[in-house]
Amino acid sequence: MNIMLFHSTFGLRPAVLAAADRLRAAGHEVWTPDLFGGRTFGTVEEGMAHNEEIGKDELLRRAVLAAAPYSERGLVYAGFSLGASIAQTLALGDDRARGLLLLHGTSDLAPNASVDGLPVQLHVAEPDPFETDDWLSAWYLQMGRAGADVEIYRYTGAGHLYTDPDLPDYDEEAAEATWRVALGFLETL
Q1: Share of residues in the chain with pLDDT > 70 (%)
Q2: φ, ψ for residue 165 (rounded to 5)?
């Protein structure tokens, strides 16, 4: 499978590269575009400030440019938190998308969003300050109306970015469960 993996608001950190290596070891081809031009951040606040400085439109432009050379291969779009929202936007706009793997995040859907049975898997903490229960319920219904085939996995007690071993949110048990399920999902695409 060809996977375009987008980083979180912390930037292209070692955990993203390690995730890409894990996916490669499972036989997938993976690209990890650096949407922040080499900058990484130690706190969510610093990363969000940089994200706002760049602007959503510019981040999406960078993501589209990174994915465009590979989209004809039928990409699985994937991402962590901010990267998940970017992956979702690109997958819903790419008729050739093979799947969408969301780790720690979702995004708004355009009212006219439409996909034909796109397989979507979301992994998120429970509770998650950025992905509240009400938000996730509405998101799930909107994705279903758009035509996506959605699975949601919740991890009780894990922190927001629980798959990143370099952050305080890290939860080894939840992270390993996530990767087990996600790798199984990718095998079905």
Answers
A1: 100
A2: -65, -10
Distance CA 23, CA 78 (A): 11
> How many degrees, rounded to 5, is the angle at CA 132 between CA 129 and CA 137?
160
Under 8 Å between Cβ of 39 and 50: yes
Taking only the tens place, the pLDDT of each residue in 97-112 is 999 999 999 999 988 9
Which pair of tokens denotes residue 2?
A: 């060809």
**DSSP collapsed to 3 states, the chain:** CEEEEECECCECCHHHHHHHHHHHHCCCEEECCCCCCCCCCCCHHHHHHHHHHHCHHHHHHHHHHHHHHHHHHCEEEEEECHHHHHHHHHHHHCCCCCEEEEECCCCCCCCCCCCCCCEEEEEEEECCCCCCHHHHHHHHHHHHHHCCEEEEEEEECCCCCCCCCCCCCCCHHHHHHHHHHHHHHHHCC
- Please give the Cα distance from 62 to 34 (Å, whole number): 9
d(CA 76, CA 3): 5
d(CA 103, CA 125): 9
